Amino acid sequence: MTTSGERHGWPRVLTGLLAAYAITYTVWTFVHWGGHRVIVSDVASWPVVAGAVLLAWRKSNDLTGPARLAWRWIAFAAASWLVGEGLWFYEEVIRHRNPFPSIADPFYLLFYPLVFVGLMLMPVQEPRRRDRMTMLLDAGIVMVAALMTIWYLVIQPTVADSHSPWTTIALSVAYPAGDLVLFGGILRILLRGPRRGAMPSLRLLALGLMCLVVADITFARLDLAGTYQPASVPDAMWVIAMFFVAAAAYVADRESAARQFDYEQREREVSLIPFGAVFVGLGLLIYQAAAPGTGSLLTLTIGVFGLAVLVGARQLVLQHDIHGLIGELEHLVSTDPLTGLASRRRFFDHGNRMVAVANENGTKCAVIIADLDGFKRINDQHGHAEGDAVLKAVAGCYRGLIAPDELAARLGGDEFACIVHADHEHDPDQFVCEVGRAVTSGITKTGDGAPLLTSLSFGVAISNGVSSLDDLLLIADTALYRAKRERIGDQARPTARIRAVIPPAATPN
Hints:
Layout lengths: L3 H28 L5 H7 L2 H16 L3 H30 L9 H18 L10 H29 L5 H27 L6 H27 L7 H20 L10 H8 L2 H18 L6 H38 L9 H18 L3 E8 L2 H8 L1 H18 L5 E6 L2 E7 L6 H15 L13 E7 L6 H20 L6 E7 L8
Parallel strand pairs: 4-5
Antiparallel strand pairs: 1-3, 1-4, 2-3
Helix pairs in contact: 1-3, 1-9, 2-4, 3-4, 3-9, 4-5, 5-7, 6-7, 6-8, 6-11, 6-12, 7-8, 8-9, 11-12, 14-15, 15-16
């Protein structure tokens, strides 16, 4: 059994050596201070690829579930690449043959699907339901831009080169196709996002694979132009790419197991990705229009049209999401979170309109304020959970008695208010009696059978065509306190109420 020091000692040293090696080789590709370029370029990646295999396999042994399988597949992919490097060296240095195409290519090409499987198995955060379509469209935008880029830079000129054998053309197309596969796996990580503890390693892994994609494209362009030289920029980028894969496996060993996920941070990080892809597609189209004859303007135009369609669809989805969020926000603002009745804000907004309509139509409306007597005792003796249950039960009584065009609200604490019609068909006193009976008979009983709530106090104020909602609330509140004093003198009454009718002359100024 390895100790913690053993687990973190040699991998740290190995990763540091690989970093120094990658930097040294990158510098050497520019200065070439000695050595045979072909031999050095062919063997240069062996140490970092072998290190990636070793660290990725070691990481897989420390994990369980999909993450373990993911790193195993990545280790297999790096091993396949290492075999390809060895066969390339054998063909070019030992047998003195052109290694492209050769037996090394199947092992190089096997790297792409193996890594893709590993990326698909990496644990990432499941997106929220409303984010799934946006993420899908973002992925589509980026993939279309990537396809345009690879098609324009590699695939189209390769296919157009009629002097090359069909095997060479097929392999030349297979590598950029593999890059697109890698790009899809990278997008899964960038758009869906790893859990917070996994971010450092998966970001390094994505960076390494992006370097690999750029190296492939650069090599293909130089090879098409006949200007590729061993130990040049593509070779350095392949080494750097494999170093990042190795570093990702090492950093993964030091991750915390945290599962928190900051959606707001993720949205800020990925919001620029689709826009960058659109600029890439437009840039290619502008470049092609300025340099006719170097590519197919029709293909790029179709690609940009596809980008426009996806961006338009994304905009529609975004607008739908915004409307949904506005609706949720309005619901939160207008609804009391505990009882589900109207909030204080909604009560004043709706109540003012209802009073204004009543004044215009010459009808009457009533404001009824209710206070739960002894509610503090319930909280003190039975706990706040029982107090909340009482408030919810009272709210249920209001919902069962209120008309669709009337409104009941919780103003705060144990104070409820409603605004109802007041005419020969709608008697506020009768409504108060119904609420009182429903509440006192429906509230949860205690262990000894006694009701938790024994009485309510009401204050009723009826408009007479000129009063504002504030006037009605002031009078109803005064009536409520008179009712509470009256209830104290008569404990047997389950409810107490004072009705105040506001005539025009008595309306407060």
